[in-house]
Amino acid sequence: MSLTFLHILIISATVFAVIGSGFYVSRSVRSSAGYSVAGRSAGASLVAGSIAGTVVGGGATVGTAQLAYSFGLSAWWFTLGSGIAFILMGIFYAKRLRNTALETIPQYLELYYGKKAETLSSIISSIGILLSAVASSLPGIEIISALFGLTPFLSALLLMALVIAYTFFGGMKSAAVSGILKMVIIWISLFISGAITFLLLQENNTLSSFPASHFDLMGQGTDSAMAHLFSVIVGVLCTQTYIQCIFSAGTPLKAASGCFIAALIVIPIGLPSVAVGMYMHAAEPGTLPILVLPTFLVNHVPVLIGGLAMSGIILSL
User: Are 262 and 51 within 8 A, CB to CB?
Assistant: First the structure.
């Protein structure tokens, strides 16, 4: 896998444009509430963009393709479970949380369980976010190293700089706008790539070469599938990042609507990555699993689509 100059140009221009949009909207941020919860003025689309933009990261794209490479359709559980969690959040949690006019989960817990609960939940939440950041950063470092030929240290520095640029100056508002743009890029480019993959899978009767378990959501076993679903739902409902998006909504109704829209965005996004993973398992079985999706996008789709998709993935990571 090697990037052409045109790939690099498209990736750089797209990443610059998305992060630049975040800088642009950050000019209106003038307070801590404006930074942390977008001044509580976000519409349903901005709430959905910030939620979907958060969950569609390395796990939903690169990780899903990596898992599908080995197990097939059951790799869909991450984005499917995330979408189900957002639906539950919209039905049962969004309006109640937004009505409190708070900013964090620990603040909410303090209302009912006291200061000690707030302190303990702050510590637990911080540790959980740290572990999540590590899980996202490791594949990001490896992919940036493979794409651009950088050392892991330089890749880590580049990734850190992108994260700072993505959220530091405008907080929730810039993350929401950037998230919407990122989702548009990923949706268009990945679904075009998925259509190309499906046509490739149909050639030479490739689909018939897979065992039946690769087309079964319970292919890794019902217990395993339900454990994945349960862990994703609990993880989403307990994570400050998603709850903060709800607190940024202009009204409780907009908070709930944003959750439902995010579910519609997130649930199908894993399917193109599943198709890519299965195709690469049949066509290029020697590929390093974590590089399955980047390799396909660089080598098997038109440069424009591949470059846009890779820029979306880098922003996701």
Answer: yes
